[in-house]
């Protein structure tokens, strides 16, 4: 093979955004090695600049006529571009909220950012991976980095406990997922590319075999862990409570987005012959997640644990679009994850600010906060109301698009359950808002009474202010701009060949013609 053919097969320009993140990662490590602790004041901005440059590079790849690279191992189509940009933006906002938090914990900032960028790389590659080895390596890159980030504050026993629990459950889920993809490899006769696996299984007549069903169940178990869907959610509450708050902010959006990107690509490409079966399983997961996440959140006293169960419920809502399996369903998933990025990270930024100033995250301690910190109260109120789906905020339109896509697909009772659990979720979100806003001065908690004077000039607080205002503005105007954002989401699905109805039919017809 000559060099020209090799270069055309590699098509390495497709991963230019990931290349920028790799260069940024190396730059962070080199700068920290040369300058030491003195670089911590601006090393975070270097990482954010690299991530934003990566997002810009992704924009230039939109509607790429040749998205396949590395011999079919990576697909840089528009679907992957949206998810890769979402993960990179999540990492950028996470770094903004991490600088002060990590400095106050007494640990090194450069190493934290380096591990976070590694997790970002894993998520970005996972969003476009279309080959089994690529999927597994990307998944492990994201998972191992997440374990390290969870236990990063080594002096905190809760962080160590959360990391150990996350590691044990995560390793088990990875083993189950790996066994599932190894069954796929065997059933397809040694194929690793997802489209080739589907074709070979159809040709071999294993389309309705028990082995393919077992592989499907194991693969869904691994995906369910990444998106924290019930009953694979056992790690979520403890990890959310014990891990550093910026880490769970990244996991709640970045890791979840990567998991849904993997679910869409793997299930639609490798399992088209058992589509009814995997839709049935995800219907059950959606039901369990919406009921358990929203009902158990009612009883939580810790803000971080409440947001943990909230994220389980949110995963249930997003799965409605996956179960619908239509272009509108996938587009509504992408739209909801895009707005979920801003409203969820806005909420976590407020939780970090409150914990840095008071040292607690108990919900009752937020009583009367409006009198002492109006900006933080506004940010947390807008984000919680948006998560609950209150109009005219972004979360309302996200849920409307998801429920409408499910209704069009005939998922009537699943949509009705989603509406009921949304009403339940509004209760525990508004409870926090009411506690902050309605309480009078004499009803303030002791923590709020002793609330320090709000100052953004303290070291590390300026990035938090930038992150809070940016996510608050994005959450506020995303509802107004919901139509162009949904158009973007819809175009990302319309320009992705694997999600077109003709793609599955073509695969099955070609397989039958080869028999």
What's the layout of helices and strands?
Layout: H1 3-10, H2 16-35, H3 43-60, E1 68-69, E2 74-75, H4 78-105, H5 109-128, H6 132-150, H7 157-187, H8 194-204, H9 210-226, H10 235-242, H11 245-270, H12 275-297, H13 303-324, H14 327-358, H15 374-388, H16 394-408, H17 412-437, H18 446-449, H19 461-478, H20 482-494, H21 501-514
Antiparallel strand pairs: 1-2
User: Which band does the percent of strand residues land in?
Assistant: under 5%
How is the main sheet built? 2 strands, antiparallel
- The SSE string, one letter per element, is HHHEEHHHHHHHHHHHHHHHHHH
Residues in helices, as a percent range = over 70%
Identify the overall geometry: globular
Strand order of the largest sheet: 1-2
**End-to-end distance, in Å?**
31 Å
Low-confidence stretches: 502-515
Q: Average pLDDT value?
A: 88
> How many individual β-strands?
2
Radius of gyration: 22 Å
The helix/strand class is mainly alpha
- Total number of helices: 21
Protein name: NAD(P)H-quinone oxidoreductase subunit 2
Subunit structure: NDH-1 can be composed of about 15 different subunits; different subcomplexes with different compositions have been identified which probably have different functions.
GO biological process, one term: ATP synthesis coupled electron transport
Catalytic activity: a plastoquinone + NADH + (n+1) H(+)(in) = a plastoquinol + NAD(+) + n H(+)(out); a plastoquinone + NADPH + (n+1) H(+)(in) = a plastoquinol + NADP(+) + n H(+)(out)
């Amino acid at each position: 093979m000559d060099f020209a053919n090799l270069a055309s097969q590699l098509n390495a320009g497709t991963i230019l955004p990931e290349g920028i993140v790799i260069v940024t990662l190396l730059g962070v490590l080199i700068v920290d090695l040369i300058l030491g602790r003195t670089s911590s004041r601006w090393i975070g901005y270097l990482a954010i600049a690299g991530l934003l440059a990566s997002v810009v590079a992704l924009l230039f790849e939109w509607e790429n006529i040749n998205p396949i690279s590395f011999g079919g191992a990576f697909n840089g189509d528009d679907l992957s571009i949206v998810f890769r940009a979402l993960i990179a933006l999540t990492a950028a906002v996470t770094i903004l909220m991490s600088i002060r938090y990590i400095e106050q914990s007494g640990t090194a900032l450069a190493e934290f950012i380096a591990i976070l960028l590694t997790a970002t790389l894993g998520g970005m590659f996972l969003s476009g991976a279309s080959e089994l080895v690529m999927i597994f390596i990307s998944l492990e890159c994201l998972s191992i980095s997440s374990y390290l980030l969870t236990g990063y504050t080594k002096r905190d026993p809760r962080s160590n406990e959360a990391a150990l629990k996350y590691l044990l459950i995560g390793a088990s889920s990875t083993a189950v997922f790996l066994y599932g993809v190894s069954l796929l490899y065997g059933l397809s006769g040694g194929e690793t590319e997802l489209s080739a696996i589907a074709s070979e299984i159809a040709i071999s007549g294993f389309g309705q075999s028990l082995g393919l069903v077992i592989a499907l169940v194991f693969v869904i178990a691994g995906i369910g862990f990444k998106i924290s869907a019930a009953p694979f959610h056992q790690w979520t509450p403890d990890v959310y409570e014990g891990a550093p708050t910026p880490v769970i902010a990244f996991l709640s959006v970045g890791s979840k987005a990567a998991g849904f990107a993997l679910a869409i690509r793997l299930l639609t490409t490798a399992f088209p012959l058992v589509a009814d079966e995997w839709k049935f399983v995800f219907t059950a997961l959606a039901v369990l997640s919406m009921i358990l996440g929203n009902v158990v959140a009612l009883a939580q006293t810790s803000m971080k644990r409440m947001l943990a169960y909230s994220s389980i419920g949110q995963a249930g809502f997003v799965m409605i679009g996956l179960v619908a399996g239509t272009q509108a369903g996938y587009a509504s998933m992408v739209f909801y994850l895009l707005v979920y990025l801003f409203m969820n990270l806005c909420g976590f930024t407020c939780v970090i600010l409150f914990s840095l100033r008071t040292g607690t995250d108990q919900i009752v301690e937020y009583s009367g906060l409006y009198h002492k910190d109006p900006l933080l109260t506004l940010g947390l109120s807008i984000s919680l109301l948006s998560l609950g789906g209150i109009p005219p905020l972004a979360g309302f339109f996200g849920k409307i698009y998801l429920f409408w896509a499910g209704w069009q697909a005939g998922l009537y009772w699943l949509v009705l359950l989603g509406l009921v659990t949304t009403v339940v979720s509004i209760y525990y979100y508004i409870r926090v808002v009411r506690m902050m806003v309605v309480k009078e001065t004499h009803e303030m908690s002791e923590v709020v009474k002793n609330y320090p004077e709000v100052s953004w000039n303290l070291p590390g607080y300026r990035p938090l202010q930038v992150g809070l205002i940016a996510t608050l503005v994005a959450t506020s105007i995303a509802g107004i701009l919901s139509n162009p954002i949904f158009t973007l989401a819809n175009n990302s699905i319309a320009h992705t060949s694997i999600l077109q109805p003709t793609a599955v039919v073509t695969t099955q017809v070609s397989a039958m013609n080869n028999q």
